Amino acid sequence: MTVMTSADSAPGDAAAAELSAALREAGLPVAATSGAGEHVRLDHLEASDARQLARLIRSGTKRTLKAARALREICEAYRIDLPELRVRQGRITLGVCRLDDAVRLARLLGASWPGADVPEAAAVRDLLVQAFPGGTGGGVLRVSVREDDPGVVELGAVDARTARRLIGALRF
Description:
By secondary structure, the chain is α+β, with helices and mostly antiparallel strands.
């Protein structure tokens, strides 16, 4: 008898087993199998099962998707361009932000900037990191400077609750 340990199994085995169990619990007769490396493969889905899976995903992520959509709309209204804003792994990733847009966002969150010129990326990062918790009533936003593009900062991901607080702060 051979006993496999977690060190012996492929990285995708545990993920495939978890997904298979969740699909069975949802009443979907679909198996997930470990693929090459960390990939997981789904067996062929009947069209009705695919529609049910899509409904389950949408209902399970409804609050996060709704918050992402509202955040995108309010940022567009303020002409804050966040082209990479998307839901990823249950969180809302904001992505790259031009410096002038990041300064505008910080100002909307209550920050003041003494000069008229757009400052360098490190100063914008610090300004936004400082303004975010106070402007939203809590929460943290990771902001980093991109070495390859000094004209933008990289905004991290927030959960749906923090996104809703950000939306509320921008509305008022």
